[in-house]
From TrEMBL:
Stretch forming the signal peptide: none
UniProt cofactor(s): [4Fe-4S] cluster
Keyword Glycoprotein found: no
Cross-referenced Pfam families: Fer4_21
Keyword Endoplasmic reticulum carried by entry: no
Name of the featured protein: 4Fe-4S binding protein
SUPFAM superfamilies: 4Fe-4S ferredoxins (SSF54862)
Superkingdom in the source lineage: Bacteria
NCBIfam families the record matches: PorD_KorD
Sorted UniProt keywords: 4Fe-4S, Iron, Iron-sulfur, Metal-binding, Repeat
InterPro entries linked to this entry: 4Fe4S_Fe-S-bd, 4Fe4S_Fe_S_CS, PorD_KorD
Domain 4Fe-4S ferredoxin-type intervals: 39-68, 69-98
Source organism per UniProt: Fusibacter ferrireducens
Length: 100
């Protein structure tokens, strides 16, 4: 898994200082939150058409595009909510039971 860089959080004094959704790297808003995940989303890259929908709706900004323009999930920050799988219109994301 790619190791994403921690982004220091600046002082938040005004509403405009708050980072917005998936425009931020993982960990900009949350700490690692994968410990209680029961189902994990898995992207089927053979089906994915790179529409960005999952990227935009993930509440934790845990979905990114890698250097090959493929979408990937940072499982350290994915809480397994399933929103991305629910919103993918071509069902390219499957929720798979964790085995841990
Ligand atoms: S919503 Fe589905 S098709 Fe769109 S980028 Fe995400 S996985 Fe790919
Ligand atoms: S399951 Fe939830 S937290 Fe994990 S990548 Fe999908 S939308 Fe983001």
């Amino acid at each position: 898994m790619k190791n994403f860089k921690r982004v220091p959080v600046p002082p938040l004094n005004h509403i405009n200082d708050y980072p917005m959704g998936s425009s931020c790297e993982s960990f900009h808003i949350t700490d690692q939150n994968s410990g209680w995940r029961v189902f994990m989303p898995v992207i089927n890259l053979d089906k994915c058409v790179s529409c960005y929908r999952c990227y935009l709706v993930c509440p934790d900004g845990a979905i990114h595009q890698n250097e090959d323009q493929k979408f990937e999930i940072d499982y350290d920050y994915c809480k397994g909510c399933g929103i991305c799988a629910n919103e993918c219109k071509i069902n390219a994301i499957n929720m798979v039971k964790e085995d841990k």
